[in-house]
Amino acid sequence: MFGDMMGMMGKIKETQQKIEETKKRLDTVLVDEQSNDGLLKVTLTANRQVKTIAIDDSLLEDKEQLEDYLVIVMNKAIEKATAVNEAELSAVTKESMPNIPGMDMFS
């Protein structure tokens, strides 16, 4: 019984390590998004950290339009980055976690 418990604890610790490694790797995965007309471009990491924002000069003339563009494009980029992040972390947990009854929240 204790051998099984120790094995499960070791597997959980291994999974936690793989999750941390995946999170670090996701800092290097870049997600690009831009407005339909290409006037605003943003790049995030898959961990949803903003890396770059490129704004066309024409948007600098209209503060309200720029704000609208930023909201729309940033939200799209965050959605993309979140999808990549969740898919990667889900793959690690499904691959690594032991089949523990009642712990299907990782599936």
Order of helices and strands: HEEEH
CATH class: Alpha Beta
CATH homology superfamily: Nucleoid-associated protein YbaB-like domain
User: Which stretches of 5+ consecutive residues score pLDDT under 50?
Assistant: none
Oligomer: single chain
SS element count, helices: 2
Query: What percentage of the residues does DSSP assign to strands (E)?
Result: 15-25%
What level of helicity do the residues show? 55-70%
Q: Can you summarize the main beta sheet?
A: 3 strands, antiparallel
The helix-and-strand class reads alpha+beta
What separation lies between the terminal Cα atoms? Answer: 25 Å
- Give the integer mean of the pLDDT values: 86
CATH fold naming: Ybab, Chain: A
The CATH level-2 architecture is identified as 2-Layer Sandwich
**Strands, count:** 3
Rg, Cα atoms, Å: 20 Å
Shape category: rod-shaped
Number of domains: 1
Strand order of the largest sheet: 1-2-3
Quick recap of the structure?
With 107 residues, the protein is of the alpha+beta class. The protein contains 2 helices and 3 strands; from the N terminus they run H-E-E-E-H. It has a single domain, classed as Ybab, Chain: A.
